[in-house]
């Protein structure tokens, strides 16, 4: 079953905004059994929209369109689709009430633009937008489905997950697709590939393997397409058992969870608590932990000690050790971990100090040098890493690595 | 002058790889004056490639194709283009020598696949690939240019910058294009549009306006295409002056900077310092600040007080106020701001306390309720916001809003 994605917006065509919508939708729709035939990105003008739509309808059963549904003058998708499908515009009371609730809830008055967003074509099914004012529009023609959605990523994502996917599953008979993730940490892609080469070469033909490296991690994806989901999953599970025997300490999840979730689940289930002390990662570890709902059950807080005086005053780091070894050193990072653990009275603590870059490096301690310490109920361990030159990547890698070090203590 | 981009590869269509190539090329080619008409992403099969190419050639003068140029059997772009342009394949000695140098330089022997990559169509200009073995192919037909390039990002980028752009500039007379951003914060898109409607309607015909909303912000883009860059910039600057008079407190940058950068630049230039105390945003504000290189000049650190006991012990929040008003209250958030400001001895401090969700809300304080306080050298101000239901979006919006509140104090 073919599916096309049309993304509308000049910001995509001038290289101002990266098209994460098409990427996310492709993954989500592929997972439920659709073959994504084409992604098309175009400007918000009537003739271009119509031409892309006609091209897609020639080859695909479903066309998902995002963008151009806002209330402002540069948004032309809705009138264009309405014209194409030969409908006329009417006011939708349910949409109006929802918009009113959203707008007045934020303390604003309904204005003309808000009113305008409740005007929709009369020949489509209106799809609820739980997180915004522009509704989705579901058209059908000759057994094919065309859905227009807002381009704001979090609005579109909720709409696809909660509304579009359930409806598409009801309307089309789709093959089963399994994409099973195996999360690994601690081995670069090239080494990992070598280590598991025999296993990879002996995978059953029905299982496809992909390597997905990201800073600090390599995810493996085992994919299978067919009709018998249980059988497919059994085959995949059997291969993961073999893989776990090959690289036992490197796999941290086979459950689509990220590292902070793995750590959080363990702490929560064992009624244990965690605090962090961050220098070079500047709050990113805390963010990874606290973006998980329920993290307040086990995460007490952090001291982000960007300046040395904060390390001394708030974390009881010794001035003498800062002078002797520098902020990026085993002595300092261990004192940071113990300091925050004691201060916040937790079972575990993570501390990080490093040189994220682009400046601040030296011959002895180049950019990317990071010390990480993990304090546990039984003691403390620490390790030095040398990552790369890119600040943002260093922040990410150091954070994931620190959470990985904590996981190994459980 | 229209330009199309065709990206070839299954990894893009199953949502495994984000299409950063199309994004990067769009920006680079738009900057030298091309109008990117369409980005198309397709699988590596002959009929699909030909259909996309024909569609693009109907509307555009230049078509840039990436991917499918590798040496293996599933790479069909080269034979397909060769067939389409009616050429025949020949061995290119210069390409062969380059491949041999690359392969043997890495300590490998030339194999069959390497040999194959020196076979190219005889009716195109072969483009040097400084960083890889697959050459680029430059075809011309009826005054139009079609270039096929490898999909490996760093190979493609060097080829575009060093070879393709200089040749295109020589071959086509290109207009000047300006895309000027205006960053606003504090007003939703629909209200902003109403507020600036008269200004928008009276924009010169040569200036095109677009609204780009994201959590907590709306970016406005003023675009202009012409021949006299200076004159165009003058027109745009004049309009921005009018806009600033209309919504003075809502614009935080006209310089492509994000909010944390705007705040950081001010603090840095005025030798002022900042600390933060975060509860519901859990380190995300600190991360936004510290991902900027050089932030250690003005940012001293943060106390992430996720647990109430940390608010009391580390930030001197009064137990009595926590009991009387709750953690999400003006009294508590102001004490947090003053506490961290004093503790870290800074000029400014931001504090946040709120309910990020999905649980923890009540009738009186629903999910999304956030109190933000900003302490300055002169005093303290605080404000309550009610954002939405999505945890991750609430964290982002609260963080951007807090930085925006700080900016307004400068």
Name its key features.
homodimer, alpha/beta, Molybdenum Cofactor Biosythetic Enzyme, Chain A, Alpha-Beta Plaits, six-stranded mixed sheet, 16 helices
CATH topology of the largest domain in chain A: Molybdenum Cofactor Biosythetic Enzyme, Chain A
Strand fraction of chain A equals: 25-35%
Can you tell me the number of structural domains of chain A?
A: 3
Q: What's the alpha carbon Rg of chain A, rounded to whole Å? A: 26 Å
Q: What are the low-pLDDT stretches of chain A, counting only 5+ consecutive residues below 50? A: none
**SS-derived structural category of chain A:** alpha/beta
Strand order of the largest sheet of chain A: 2-1-3-8-7-6
Number of strands of chain A: 17
**Which two chains touch over the largest interface?**
A-B, 94 and 94 residues
Top-tier CATH class of the largest domain in chain A:
Alpha Beta
Give the biggest beta sheet of chain A.
6 strands, mixed
Output the number of helix runs of chain A.
16
Oligomer: homodimer
Distance between the termini of chain A: 45 Å
* Helix content percent band of chain A: 40-55%
Shape of chain A: globular
Query: How does CATH name the architecture of the largest domain in chain A?
Result: 3-Layer(aba) Sandwich
